[in-house]
Design a protein that fits this description.
Radius of gyration: 42 Å
Number of strands: 7
Shape: globular
Number of helices: 6
Structural class: alpha/beta
Helix content: 25-40%
Distance between the termini: 101 Å
Length: 242
């Protein structure tokens, strides 16, 4: 029994010396002949070396954007109807990307008489938009704020409407990552700017799907004419009016 435990330990632990076997009389046996190789035998196939698998490095995840404030940039573009350049500001949302697809919706905001394109930033529009975008309440959007330089002149003679409806909208569509089409555009304004928003939004009905009016400055006669135009529009053509 003791020898069995020692043999088991020798099998488990390297370096043990085997016990001497008992001496027994063994008959002498002739030596076994060495095998002669068969020259016709097919040699065993040579296996290719096993490929060493090297795991591919893990891709570094793109960190989520943590910006909470957008940026504002100023531009000047040629406007033939004004016979000079049209100045404007564009407010970009937090985490703005110039290669965004399919692009951002656009809100055009027009200032009132006696103000400039800076009005909306002074009123906190950019900060309010950034907060709503960051909280997920509204999608990221661009806010375009043009300046009406001749704001004390007859509004029907300055060429401002054509500069906005034709030149500005075309420039924005071609130069900034915006989603095209009426459904991606809205226009709003304050006082004289609200009058412009209503005129342009209804006169060029294929451009804007939403119109926002703040302290509308317009004669009752003109308002009635636009109300009649709105009532004559079909449901699919009528912009949402705020």
């Amino acid at each position: 029994m003791k020898s069995r435990w020692i043999l088991l330990l020798c099998l488990l632990l390297a370096g043990c010396t085997a016990l001497p076997a008992a001496t027994l009389p063994i008959a002498a046996l002739p030596p076994s002949p060495s095998p002669t190789p068969d020259p016709t035998a097919t040699p065993p196939p040579t296996l290719p070396p096993t490929a060493v698998f090297t795991p591919a490095p893990l891709a570094t995840p793109t960190p989520a954007c943590t910006e909470t404030a957008g940026q504002t940039e100023s531009f000047s573009i040629e406007a033939e109807s004004l016979h000079k350049q049209l100045k404007l500001m564009v407010h970009y949302p937090p985490c703005y990307r110039a290669d965004a697809f399919p692009g951002y919706p656009v809100l055009y905001m027009l200032h009132g008489q006696g103000s400039t394109e800076q009005l909306w930033l002074d009123l906190g529009l950019g900060q309010a938009a950034d907060r709503l975008v960051s909280s997920g309440e509204i999608p990221p959007l661009l806010i375009v704020m043009p300046w009406e330089e001749y704001q004390y002149d007859d509004p029907f003679e300055t060429g401002y409407e054509e500069a906005l409806a034709n030149t500005l909208v075309s420039w924005v569509d071609a130069s900034l990552p915006v989603c095209g089409g009426r459904g991606c555009r809205a226009i709003g304004g304050l006082s004289r700017g609200a009058a412009w928003a209503l005129r342009i939004g209804l006169q060029d009905g294929d451009l804007f799907s939403r119109i926002g009016l703040h302290s509308l400055s317009m004669s009752g006669e003109e308002i009635n004419s636009w109300v009649s135009k709105i009532n004559a529009l079909g449901a699919s053509e009528r912009p949402a009016l705020y």
